[in-house]
Amino acid sequence: MSRLALAVRWLGPLSVLLTVLFFDLVGASVMMLVCLAVTITWRARLPAALEITTDLTLLLAAWSSVFLLYEKLEHWDLVVHFAATAVLAELAFRALERWSRLSPPGPVSHVVVVSSLGAALALVWEYLEFAGFYLVDPQVNVGYLDTMGDLAAGHAGSLVAGILGTWARQRAGAGGNPRATEPPAGTERPDSTARPAGTARPGSTARSGTVQRPGSTDEQDTTEKKD
């Protein structure tokens, strides 16, 4: 799986090179954004399956733009918005969890955070499409129905991603290594009791070879303290 993930990572730079040689700079710029996302998926230390799925989905979205599949295939843009926003929302959540020390949320919180991130990313995507229409290529499909459909598809995809991500984590936790629940090395167990050095455990006997005599030094010390 690691070799497959490494091969998929190299598809990003290769796609940039191919679009520069055989297509236009617009397609190359889109592929450069995909390369940035591939780098983030790599540095975020995602599970191999999630990293491969994210990279391939984003590459599919970019190559669909290069080959004008959004104009040729009806509703293809909704499919891509659904899938791409889903993987990007989960990626954003994992990146926040890794680099901002986000505490692991519960199942409901996981779904809410991922779907919220997906809604924000879908909105940013529409801003970029609007900018691309006016600044780069007037063939970019924009409009009220297109924008609302893309936002709905993106939000739905992120909601599904949050649910699947929660399910995957719960499954991994249920079938994980029992040693993962052990306390870290150097820490005491919850049922352990801290004892001063040199003292015996409750109910334990004195060391063999030592006898405590009446009126020994300990008792004398106690009597002197009382005086």
List keywords for this structure.
mainly alpha; disordered C terminus; 227 residues
Describe this structure in words.
With 227 residues, the chain is an all-alpha fold. Helices cover 69% and strands 0% of the residues. The protein contains eight helices and no strands. It has helices at residues 2-22, 25-43, 48-66, 69-72, 76-99, 107-135, 144-174, 217-226. Helix 5 packs across helix 7.
Runs in which pLDDT lies below 50 for 5 or more consecutive residues are: 177-187, 189-194, 204-211, 222-227
Tally of alpha and pi helices: 8
As a percent range, the share of strand residues is under 5%
Question: Whole-Å distance between the termini?
Answer: 78 Å
Radius of gyration, Cα only, in angstroms?
Answer: 30 Å
Main beta sheet strand tally, sense and closure: none
Give the overall pLDDT as a whole number.
78
> What proportion of the residues is helical, as a percent range?
55-70%
Compressed to H and E, one letter per element, the order equals: HHHHHHHH
- Beta strand count: 0
Structural class: mainly alpha
Shape: globular
How would you summarize the topology of this molecule?
Elements (H helix, E strand, L loop, with lengths): L1 H21 L2 H19 L4 H19 L2 H4 L3 H24 L7 H29 L8 H31 L42 H10 L1
Summarize the structure.
The chain has 227 residues and is mainly α. It has helices spanning 2-22, 25-43, 48-66, 69-72, 76-99, 107-135, 144-174, 217-226. The model is unreliable at 177-187, 189-194, 204-211 and 222-227 (pLDDT under 50).
